[in-house]
Amino acid sequence: MQEWKAISRRPWYQHLAFWVCVLICYMIANLEHHHSWPESLNTYAVKVSMQAFVAYYLLLLVIPTYYQEKGGLLITPQIIGLLLLIQGIDTTWRYYYLEPTYPMTHATCIARYGHLSYTQRLFDVVSIFFKNPATYLPPAFILIAIQYFQKQQEMAELNEQKHRSEIMALKNQMNPHFLFNTLNNLYALALKRSEQTPEVIGKLSEILDYMLYRCNDKYVSLDKEIELLHNYLSLEKIRYGSRVDVNFVPQVDHAAQIAPLLLLHFVENAFKHGVSQELGQALIEIDLQTTPLEIRFVIKNSIPDTPIAESQQPPIGLRNIKRQLNLLYPKRHELTIDHAPHHYSVHLNIFPL
Fold first, then answer.
1. Which residue, 191, 224, 226, 236, has fewest beta-carbon neighbours within 10 Å?
2. CA distances, 332 to each of 254, 350, 351 (Å)
3. Helix 262-273 to helix 138-191 angle, to the nearest 10 degrees?
4. pTM for the whole thing?
């Protein structure tokens, strides 16, 4: 049933057009062997009809059986039955119609098989297993190839849709986390009646505008992401003041595309697990470079001397980032995380297409 639905997705006239094209090709290629157009049409119309029967027999019965049973044992009797049926129709058609009706055209065949009876020709092993398959199977192979290609396209589209949905789900999990942290920062400034509150609101507005409306594509310009990082760092510098020293001078010598918000989450983690827990002077160093073949991103942050108990499981944000990298850059990225006694660093190399 599923195979029939797959085949019937194409309108009936497309199936008909395919077989008409096959018929015309046969007639044009073999016209010199026949004495008239009606003879050629009469001959190849039956041949193409049998080829169509064989093609849909394989597509609707044999191939589904093979996949459902995960093996070729049950399809063997189906194929043998098909070969015997083809032999019966072909032999009967030739013996009782083509050769008597067009003896001049089929003189060679008559000379070769004329001494054999109908029964002897009916059970000719060479015709059953070699000649007839070579005659009636080629169009079926073409349709099977087309069907396989269509299924591969559909599977690729479904996988792409699945990946996009999963990536959006991961982003939706992390964006509220970013917003929550930033609103906490804003709340702390508001309590202090800080003059920097309007500036924070302005930066937050720019970040939210980018996150909500300008980064919905799968990939965005790296320059836009750098601008986002600068805005985010400005917010955090306002919050922590002289407690944190941030060194970020991107060296982007080549235009590049990158998945949106990807680098921001690493910067967020540096502040959350480094600066926010540091009572003394905190340090964050960010290195971003591009080459024609890759994007290199390194972020290193200091961590407090006093160890803080943490879960043995990696933070959910980090798990999401790793999953997002696997979806967006499969086998095209390298991620190394180094958790040393006094610093935490992330090395990320991305190899865009």
1. 191
2. 18, 6, 5
3. 40
4. 0.55
User: What is the bridge-based pairing of β-strands 244-248 and 282-290?
Assistant: parallel
CB 292 within 8 A of CB 257: no
Task: Please give the structure tokens belonging to residue 295.
Answer: 């994007």
Burial category of 140 from C-beta neighbours within 10 Å (exposed 0-12, middle 13-18, buried 19 and up): buried
SS3 state at 190:
helix
Q: Are 87 and 132 in contact (CB under 8 A)?
A: yes
CA separation for the pair 229, 236 (Å, rounded): 11
Distance CA 280, CA 6 (A): 66
- Backbone φ and ψ for 229, nearest 5 degrees, come out as -65, -40
Contacts of 23 by beta carbon, 8 Å cutoff, 6+ apart: 41, 44, 45, 48
The DSSP secondary-structure symbol of 170 reads H
**DSSP-H helix ranges across the chain:** 2-8, 12-29, 37-57, 63-69, 75-93, 99-101, 107-113, 118-122, 125-126, 132-136, 138-191, 197-209, 222-240, 262-273, 316-328
- Give 35's DSSP letter: S
Q: Report the alpha-carbon distance of residue 207 to residue 327 in Å, rounded.
A: 25
| DSSP secondary structure letter of residue 56 | H
Q: How far apart are CA 329 and CA 325, in angstroms?
A: 5
d(CA 228, CA 213): 13
- Residue 217 structure tokens: 């594509």
B/e letters for 174-210, b = 16+ CB within 10 Å, e = fewer, are bbebbeebbeebbeebeeeeeebbeebeebbebbeeb
Distance CA 310, CA 339 (A): 13
Give the residue from 161, 153, 144, 125 showing the smallest Cα distance to 61: 144
Alpha carbon distance 187, 322 (integer Å): 31
Average of pLDDT values for 71-81?
Answer: 79
Are the CB atoms for 257 and 220 separated by under 8 Å?
yes
Q: Report the pLDDT value the prediction gives residue 226, as an integer from 0 to 100.
A: 93
